[in-house]
Amino acid sequence: MNTQDFAGHESFPAIGGIQIQPLQVLIAEDDEADAYLIHQALQASPIVGGIAIARDGEEALTLMRSGGIRPDLAIVDLNMPRKGGMGLLVDFACGGWGRFPVAVLTSSKSSIDLCRARLRGAHAIITKPDTQEELAEVLDGLVASALTISLERDRDKGR
């Protein structure tokens, strides 16, 4: 388990009276090379304030239960040891951590896997891109979507 916070991204100016907080991202990925590439792409984003990496679903849950991260976005692989992505999606939905977007980033091309992930609450299902540039584009879109959801959640809390 690896957690990294970036002190340089503590907060941003307020937009529409809402203070923007850097996003906390949880990566659940057992492949070290994929986890590294995802981490590198996220680290380049000024919107991301902290990244936690779990090597499987059990580690991700342990990290959340311990308060190690309260994710604004989770990026989950489907095929992991111990607890895979499908089980983790169910635990996210039933765990009482509040709602946050979960993106499945997988090498699976099975339509059954993709349908099952969507039914278990995945907000986005993305086949792992072939290049680092494509991965960065995909992750930039996920981060932007997570920021929008975070701002809407914060706005609704203020009502």
The neighbouring-strand order within the major sheet is 1-5-4-6-7-8
Task: Kindly provide the name of the CATH class.
Answer: Alpha Beta
Q: Describe the main β-sheet briefly.
A: 6 strands, mixed
Please tally the β strands and state the result: 8
Can you write the helix and strand succession as a string? Answer: EEEEHEHEHEHEH
Our count of helices gives 5
Can you summarize this structure?
The protein has helices at 32-43, 57-65, 85-94, 111-119, 132-157, and strands spanning 2-5, 14-15, 18-19, 23-28, 48-54, 73-76, 102-106, 124-127. It is an alpha/beta fold and 159 residues long.
Secondary structure blueprint with pairings:
Elements: E1 2-5, E2 14-15, E3 18-19, E4 23-28, H1 32-43, E5 48-54, H2 57-65, E6 73-76, H3 85-94, E7 102-106, H4 111-119, E8 124-127, H5 132-157
Parallel strand pairs: 4-5, 4-6, 6-7, 7-8
Antiparallel strand pairs: 1-5, 2-3
Helix pairs in contact: 1-5, 2-3
What does this structure look like?
With 159 residues, this protein is α/β, with parallel strands linked by helices. It has one domain (2-7, 20-152): Response regulator (Rossmann fold). 42% of the residues lie in helices and 21% in strands. It has 5 helices and 8 strands; from the N terminus they run ββββαβαβαβαβα. Strands 1-5-4-6-7-8 form a 6-stranded mixed sheet, sandwiched between helices. Strands 2-3 form a two-stranded antiparallel sheet. α1 packs across α5 (132-157) and α2 runs parallel beside α3. It starts with a strand and ends with a helix.
